[in-house]
Design brief:
heterodimer; A: alpha/beta; Aconitase, domain 3; 5-stranded parallel β-sheet; 17% strand; B: alpha/beta; Aconitase, domain 4; 2 domains; 7 strands; 35% helix
Chain lengths: 459, 206
Amino acid sequence: MSTPRTLFDKLWDSHVVAEREDGEALLWIDRHFVHEGSHHAFRAVAARNAGLAEPGLTFGVADHYVPTRGRPAIADAGIAGMVTQLSDNTARHGFRLYGLDDPAQGIVHVVGPEQGLTLPGLSVVCGDSHTSTHGAFGALAFGIGASEVAHVLMTQTLWQKKPKRMRIAVRGPLGPHVTAKDLALHVIATVGANGAHGHAVEYQGEAIRTLSMESRLTLCNMSIEAGARSALVAPDDTTFAYLAGRPHAPSGADLDRAIALWRSLATDEGASFDREVAIDAAAIAPTVTFGTSPEDALPITARVPDAPALADALAYMGLAPGQRLVGIPVDRVFIGSCTNGRLEDLRAAAAVLRGRRAAVPGLVSPGSTLIKQAAEAEGLHTVFLDAGLEWADSGCSMCVGMNGDLIASGQRCASTTNRNFRGRQGQGARTHLMSPAMAAAAAIAGHLADVRDYPPLER
Amino acid sequence: MDRFTTLSAPAAPLALDNVDTDQIIPARFMKRSRAEGYGPVLLHDLRFDEAGAPRPDFVLNTPRHAGAKVLVGGRNFGSGSSREAAVYALWDYGIRCVIAPSFGDIFASNAVKNGLLPARVSEEDAATLLAWLDSANDTQLQVDLEACTITAGGQTIPFSIDPVRRTQLLNGWDDIDLTRERAAAIASFRTARAQAEPWAIAPPAA
């Protein structure tokens, strides 16, 4: 009888090419995604006069700098140069590019799953911290820096120390209007912004099993905000149903063989974790952030806390201790990003907005061009447009502002993104993180609001 | 990469938790090439106001701490985005070591790959160092990577770093050269993987 292993152990073991005496393992990489920001790595490859080890396992996605309005024109020469540089590098090295004009273009962490490139049992890396997203399929996925991107480009491998294993067990079902985003913010507030540091997190429990693939992606996406190296959900029928028919997923007999193998990835009975955290799903309410770290999250019904350590953050945010979260005026909303830009997210926001008007301006940017099309086929875009919001093209957009979608200094944004860091959405910008439905409620109210006060209107 | 053994250099306190990489280098500066230098944009929005003028009260703008080569920070330094440009900004400014109670994982890895030492100390020792830097006349401290110690104001405190990363810094090894020695193992792994999970090695075409 072999030692029971966790999902993470199995994924790790199946990718170890070699081990060193010091404990570092050389891991094989199955999927490598690069984007415009990977230019430093390509320069390192050029400096060595090297080529790519596996162009067939390398995929370029234009997302960080792409325009969301007035495509394909890019007014800013510096921004245009970033997009062009990625096209040049993909052409030079001969790998697939989901570029600005590609019908499947979108945000890298949306495109990978959508195209069936991300699969259970694979190792997935990208020079982007939110690569943890792909772990929702039961893939070993983590973000890396430019030096590591260069290493993967040239060798298709990476030296890594095995992280510790952490289980987050979510007991019971999530309540009404409580989404994966609320769960993620609740987890980060519970363990802290570096609470999962050095760990690979596996989410288990009834609440996780009933989550859709989209919701699992949101949850794993946000896990880096708790400091986790990677995040995992064991693949199950929900996963397999999502993958069936995806352009680059196995099909036919290959798919049957794959599914049999993927089922065996689940954590064995009795396998041990280095750390255990239990979360009671019933205790989670629609949640928002109030400070400048994702750990500064509370139920929407709460008040801004009074703690000396928060003074700087509250000064930046223009908030006072004791202030009710409901009622904090917002200047705009943003719905999109690799966290919450999927079809399910757009549907959730539209369900609240349908038949209502937004009191403040807002931008809705779908996670991919295919999601944009699907949303338009359902008429979701007219809900957003009728509400007075802007319906834009797909990209990282206002989550990080690299393409010029910025929030003015001092302005406050209800945002479905992943980071409320100082200046993340623009110098001096104030960000409150929340679910798409909560952002929709904030748009209608013109202030932070409880989505439970905005039931869908009769159609 | 550059080797790191010992360092004797002036330090500056940055007594903030969660100094994320968006603060170390705001996204709008990441279009620049390394040749242009990232030093001028290090901690840009903390260092400069919205008109671009230095904020006189920010630590690196004070005469006492301008030109620091060591930064003492708070919990979770370098969290957030994986942007290696955060390390470039520290390095190009002249910082060679960051001392903090904890670091973002990807940041610490990026730092080592560029020869910058992320030295982990206890919360108490970080607080002691920060207090010392606020009052000391001479902000010079000594870092010894072989011994994993920091000496400041006559006191020596230990720091920790992953042993592999320590060796890497001490030797200045380049990963890619080490990996290329494993070419045969990589090739046979690839062959076995193509057998076991063919879809992993050859993504089905659309």
